[in-house]
Each structure stands twice: as structure tokens, then as C-alpha cells.
Amino acid sequence: MESRTSELIDELAHNHTLDLEGYEHLVTHQDDEAAQRLADLASAVRKDVYGTDVFVRGLIEISSICKNDCLYCGLRSSNASCERYRLTPEQILLCADMGYELGFRTFVLQGGEDMWFSDERLCAIVASIRERHPDCAITLSMGERSRESYARLRQAGADRYLLRHETADPEHYALLHPAAMSFDNRMRCLHDLRELGYAVGVGMMVGSPYQTPRHLAEDLAFIDRFKPEMCGIGPFIPHHATPFADRPAGTLEQTCYLLSIIRLIHPTVLLPATTALGTIDPLGREKGVLAGANVVMPNLSPVDVRQKYLLYDGKICMGDEAAECRRCLDLRMERIGYHVVVDRGDPRP
Ligand code: 5AD
Ligand code: FES
Q1: Is 347 a member of any domain?
Q2: Which structural domain, as residue segments, surrounds residue 122?
Q3: What's the N-to-C CA distance of the chain in angstroms?
Q4: Are 72 and 176 in contact (CB under 8 A)?
Q5: Does residue 298 form part of some domain?
Q6: What is the pLDDT of residue 319?
Q7: Residue identifier of the C-alpha nearest atom 13 of ligand 1
Q8: pLDDT for residue 237
Q9: How many angstroms does the Cα of residue 118 sit away from the middle of ligand 2?
Q10: Which ligand is closest in space to the CA of residue 162?
């Protein structure tokens, strides 16, 4: 490891921040030694805050219908080969009830930007979950909506919102999204969510098309500034029916390296070892946790709709019932010395 890299790692561990050039240097000087040093420091910081606890979120994929046309995503509206489905409110509540029995205390409702989920309908669903499971946190991941909509959902009982920023560079954003979407609106959404009192999750794909080290440095600087309560990062994985079908996937190594840096920037952040990470490597989620992640998000969606919610090719756990995934993750975490806990896993100040 080069001495400048080593100095920057020490500075980051000590001050929890670097300038843009510092982040860019770390991104461009990744090697095994730097990665191991960052992972050790990140693990130590995470152990101080969270011990060996790993939080679980029950992911309910409520709709594969999406009006957007993001170039990287298998659910993009111009993918005519994607079979679309939408869970009924009753099905969603059943998933949550089953999840509760399995020890989940956070439910994440995720879906494409499906206009059927009007404020009225989504608020009713949120309010029912809130009433049936008052001790649970409700997270929404339903894309860009108006401030008014976010306010109504918050009022109905939603606690957290995941909306990855995707990239902190406006020009890169424009290369990943159709002209109808804008970086500014993304940022508007994130600031509205924060002001409305949500715990907010941002995030980006690692190795997305056109991404440069500078872009990743900007992502890190954005995470440093915005201090999101949650941050979802996973490798980009190509989907066969998108314009990025032939692009290479992001790597396990770079994703883990960035997880460690993010843990050091923001010691209390809730950081998932994502399904995408588990998809590019059979032990991806374990390696993510060992690099500094502290959340896993198994799927609670009904097994018969799973294949229709394909953001990328090769996604894992397609045929596994929620109970199997839950057990599987318990074992996977135990094997590396961590413990999945029955807890809302609220953000720490
Ligand atoms: N590879 C990896 N992650 C993807 N996402 C969408 N498409 C892909 C892909 N091809 C991520 C995006 C989105 C989240 C729900 O899934 O970052 O915000
Ligand atoms: Fe789904 Fe392992 S987490 S089968």
C-alpha cells in the first residue's frame, strides 16, 4: 500500500471525513492491503456501535409495474418481456403478517413507480400495517413522489424511505436515466423526505455504466454531506433486456471496499449487504458484513411473483420461501460470528 493511501485511511478513521480528492485517491488506489485495513477499521467501528447484531428487513416487492425507463433496470417500462404484477393490499398484509411471525420488525414495501398506488391506496396499506404491527417500522421504497405525497404517507405511519440517489454526478445521472427524469428532482425528493422526518436511505450501484472513480468520490462526498440514516450499495449487474445488457458487472471487491469507507464516514449508518452482492458471489452478503455492513434484506414476496421482479439477471433466492431465507441468513451470519436480531433496527443518532 502506498504511503499516501495509508495516511488517508488513518485520517478517515480518525476524522470520519476526507475531501473529494482524498476519496478519489482511495478509490483509485484500491489494493488488497488497503481493503483489508479498511475492513478491519470498519468492523471495529461497527462493533463499537452495533456489536455483532445484524438487522433484518422484510422486503415486500409490491409491484413490478413502473412508469420509468431507467436504462439499467429490468423493470424499465420499455422492457416488453417483463411480466408485470401488482400485489393486492390483502396480499401485502399477509406478507407482513407472515414476516412478523418470522421475527421481522421492519417491513420494506418496494415497487416500481406504479400509479395505481395513489396516496390514498398506499396510505391505507401503511395505516393497516401500522395498526396490525404497532411495534414495527415501515419503510417505503416507491420512487419519486410529490412532497405532499411523502407528507401524507409519513402521516399514515411510514417511518423510513429508501430512494437511492444512483449517482451524485448530474451528468452521469443523465447517462443512466431517460430525459424525463432529473437529478434535481431526485435531490428534491431526498431533501423533502428528510424535512418530513423520515429516516432516509440513499445509495448507488458500484460499477454502473460510465461510472468513473471521480463519480464514486462524489458519491462518497455526498454521503458524507447528506449523512443518510441508511445507505444501499450493491454491484451493478446487467439485465439482458436493457440497453446495458452487455456491460460488465460491478465487483465484489470494489463494493466491499466502498462499504468499509462508508462505515468509516458514518459510523452509525444502517448499511445493507445487498441481494445484488449475494448474487455476484455466493458469500457476497457475508463478505459485505465483514467489510462493515450491518443489515440484510431477505425477500418476503410471494414465491410465485419473484421471477417477475428482476432488476438484474441471476438474482438469488427466487424459489425460497421467506422462512427459508430467514433461516438461511441466520445460519450465514452465525457462521461468521454475527447474529440476526428481532428488532426494528432503528437508526442511532
Ligand atoms: N443492477 C444492480 N442494481 C440495480 N438496481 C436497478 N437495476 C439494477 C441492476 N441492473 C438498483 C437501483 C435501484 C434499486 C432498487 O435497485 O440502484 O435504486
Ligand atoms: Fe434466501 Fe439464503 S437468503 S435462500
Answers
A1: no
A2: 23-341
A3: 34
A4: yes
A5: yes
A6: 86
A7: 164
A8: 98
A9: 32
A10: 1
Enter the C-alpha cell of residue 343: 428488532
Ligand 2 centroid distance, CA of 68 (Å): 29
Question: What DSSP assignment string belongs to 281-324?
Answer: STTHHHHHHHHT--EE--B-S-GGGGGG--SSTT-S-TT--HHH
Which stretches in the chain have pLDDT values below 70? Answer: none
Amino acid 320: pLDDT: 85
pLDDT at residue number 61: 98
* Residues within a 6 A CB radius of ligand 1: 72-73, 164, 166, 205, 234, 236-237, 239, 276, 311-312
Alpha helix positions (H), the chain: 3-15, 20-28, 32-50, 89-101, 119-132, 147-156, 170-176, 183-195, 213-226, 252-265, 275-280, 284-291, 322-335
Q: Residue 5's CB: how many other CB atoms inside 10 A?
A: 19
Cα of 72 from ligand 1 centre, angstroms: 7
267: left (phi over 0), alpha (psi -120 to 50) or beta: alpha
CATH number of the domain within which 58 lies:
3.20.20.70
**Looking at residue 307, what is its pLDDT?**
93
pLDDT at position 311 is: 96
* C-alpha 92 to ligand 1 mean position (Å): 22
Does residue 7 fall inside a structural domain?
no
**The pLDDT of residue 112:** 98
pLDDT at 87: 98
- Ligand 2 binding residues, C-beta < 6 A: 298, 317, 320, 324-325, 328-329
| Residue 48, number of CB atoms within 10 A of its CB | 10
pTM: 0.98
102 domain residue, yes or no: yes
Provide the number of structural domains found in the chain.
1
